[in-house]
Structures are given as structure tokens and as C-alpha cells.
Amino acid sequence: MGAEGERPGRVAEADRELVARCLAGERAAQRLLFEREKRRVHATLYRIAGHNRGMDDMLQDTFITVFRSLHQFRGEAQLSTWIDRCAVHVALKHLKAQRRARREQGTDTGEPAVEACSERRLGLRQALQRLYTVLDQLDEKPRVAYVLHVLEGRPIRDVAQLTDATVVATKVRIFRARREVERRARLDPLLAEFVAEGQPLAGEEEADA
Amino acid sequence: VKPIDVEPLDEQRWKKVEHGVFRALDEDAAKARARPVRGWTLGFAGAALAAGLSVLGYAVLAPEHPPPAVATSTPPPASGAEERWESGEQPLERTWGTLELRAAPRSLLALEAPRRSLHRGRLESGEVRVAVPPGEQVELALGRVLVRASAVRFVASYDGYRPALAVEEGELVLAGAGVPSVLRAGERWPVADGPLPGAAQAPLRSQPDSPDGPAAAAAPLPHEGAARARNAALAEPHARERYERAARLEGSDPGQAEALYSALARGRGVWSAHALFALGRLELERGQTARGRATLRRYLARHPGGPNAEDARRLLAPQP
Fold it and tell me: Is there a contact between A1 and B310 if contact means CB atoms under 8 Å apart?
């Protein structure tokens, strides 16, 4: 999944075989791929969206996209990376549609609803709610880049690949999003506690090199 | 930033997602089957035909060139032309070239026209008993497994997930990842507790290699002892199937999936390596961080250049 593993010819033989079986229409292979990837894809989509509302649609769209486009998988990246790319594209589409719907309905308050959760997690959920309030006010691309890099811990090169952007553009997007989050964190102790300010972001040195 | 806990989806929502995905795939497949030949395809075929005719005409009419040789033998039937054959609620018998088939109810086969002595086909679902006379060859695909045989009688079944075979007479050659290479009379793969189910168990009307009829076919086989020994060797379900079963259980019964991965990881071979990695990944997913990390380290120690090594290192890397 990492950048090191994405040279041509490095895709696991098991993945190649699984893809071939899926393309042959073998339902057992398709179910295996779905079962293997669903939780990781869900985690990525959840961190981008910040909640599980509409998650069923996003997951369905992602996996339908994956299976319909599998013939385009050339093994130049790991299968998991390629699937993540589909997930990111679907997430971007959904975020745009949600933003458009909120604007049309005049309900763009930037306040995501909080799902029912246990008391133990309440503080964390409130902090997350504040974070996603900030992210909701960003454009989709900086938001997704920030989530993938800062919340998911992916190197900038991977994020650039997943979002079809250059490394520099990705760094700029992350910088914009992080600056906005940190600006809000200075005014919000709960968010400030959640966000550790001033830490170097993973992969920046690598991308700078 | 503190790590974000992902709120898991409940099983009902996962079922809904899964149902939606595979219903869409089924609809895609149905549309592809029903799609008419497009106009541009016909146009392209017409252009190709016209080009071919003009080249042929030039070759015939041009005085400085000798006339082209004309093939006198009958061309073989186009390969790839398949006939789909489906049994209904009753078992069905038919011949396929010189082969005899008996399909259990609700079986679906795709059969190509025999080419010389070679019979190519695919069992898409259900069960079929095949009798291949000497001098004839059959290639029957069951999912990822290809059966090649001559002078043999066997029963094949395929439920869309797992192929199964039982050889009654003769010998089969199997091709496909992770399957035994040869099955002999009296052997079955994978070994099941009982006979293969279904109406295909009934003997064919005529058995090419059993002139004495069904009674002879039911008599003890000459190599029964050896067959039993090989069956014992094949009795363990194949590692890949065990891996796939564990993968399927990850959503509904992760504890059982862990147990299966763990058992498989104790063995050797590529699927044991996959299982060891999957065990570590699953333990991490289930919040058993220390165990999961230890398992992934064990994976990396055993398979530092393995196909999942990059992912294992990523999972072990400290989070920013």
C-alpha cells in the first residue's frame, strides 16, 4: 500500500489472481474481495465523512465502481491502493452533492449531527464534531487530503496518488486545511486538546526530499 | 491528532450494502447478456469483409500473380461457439459428440461443438456425470479448475463457489492453483463425508467402459486401498478454501475467522503466510493491539519479502 510497494510488478500474485477471478465473474472471488476490503474502505470513508450517515450509499457506490472498473486495474499500484482511490473519488462526489444540497436547502450550518454514542466517548465525539465542523467548511479536496494525511496517516505521495493530484498541490491542500483547523483550535479548547498543534506531519520530509 | 475510532456498521447495514452491490453486478451481467449487437460492430464487420473481398479479388485478377491456393478441406467449426444446456426440475441425459452426460436437476452447462476428438465445456452450476470413451478427450471447466480427461467416468459438481469431483473409472488431470494434479478411480476432491448429492448419481444408460452394466460399475474398484490412502491425504480441505472461509467469516463471526486463520497459519505454504498476515490484521481490527502487532512481527520475521510485507510494515509503523 505504501509508495515503496507500488512499483510495477510488485502487486501480490494472490491479488492478480483474485482480480482475474473477479473479472471472470466468479461470485466467490467477488465476495472475497468485498469481505477483505470492506472494513478498510469503511474506515477511510468514515474518516472523510466523519459519520455513518449515508455510509451505506457511499460503500455501495465504491464497491460497484470497483467491480465495474476492475478491468482497468493494471497492477501498477497495490490493489488496496487502487480500491482506496475509488473510495476517495466516491467520497468526493458525495461531499460535493451534500454541500450542493445544503446550499439549495439553506441549511449549510456546518454542524454535523452527532450520532448516538456511549458516554465514554462523548468528549471525543464532541471534539470530533468540532473538527468536522471545520472540515465541512473547507472545499472537498483540501478536506479529503487533510483526512487522508493527518487522520489516516498516509504519506503525502500516497495521498497525491489517491486524489489524482501532484505532490505539491497535495501539500498545499493539506497546509490550507491544517491552517484552518489550527486557527479554529486556537479559539476552541476542546478542539485544541484534540489537535496536537505544531507536530510535523508524517511524510512531509519525505515529500520535500 | 488523536486517532479517530471508526463507529462500526451493524451487520444489517453491511448486509444491505452487500446486497446492493451484488444486485447491481447481477443487473450488469443481465444487461450484457441482453445487449444487442451494436451498429458500429456490424459496420466494422462489413468493412472487414469488404476489405477481405477486395484483397481476394486483386489476388485472383492480377495477371502477374499466380492464383491463390484454395483450401479444399472443410473448415472446423468456429471455436468459442457455445451451446448452453440447462436441466430443469428433472435430471436430463444427452450426448455431447461421443460423450454421454447426465445432469442433475437445475444444472447449467456451456458446451462447445466438439472439435475432432476434443470436447470443451464449462459446468456453471449443478452437477453432471460424464462418460468419456477411449480416444476422446474432454476439457471441463469448474470455476478456476480445469478437468482434462480421456477414457474416464466421473461426476463433477460446482455450486458457483467450490468445485468437487469424484472419479469412478479412469484418471483425471486437474489444472488450477492449489488442486491435486491427478485424481484416480475411487478418489474424490475435496473429500466429502458422503457421495456427491443429486440425480447425477444414477448410472448412465450405457457405460462405455462397463460392458457388464451398472452392476460392474458398482463393484469394488481394483485400486480401492490406494484410493483410500490418497483420499486421506486429500481429506483436509484445501488451504485456500480454508483461507477463503475465514475471510468470509470476518464480518459475521470474527472470533471463528481468527481461529481458522490461526490454525491455517500454523502450517506451511503461501496460504499459511496469507493467513498469518490476515490474523494479525484482524487482531488489530478487533482492538487486540499487542497480539496483532506480535503476529505481524512474526509474519515479517518469517516472510520479510512476502506479498503482504509492505502492508504489515505499514500496520506496524507508529501512527503520526
Answer: yes
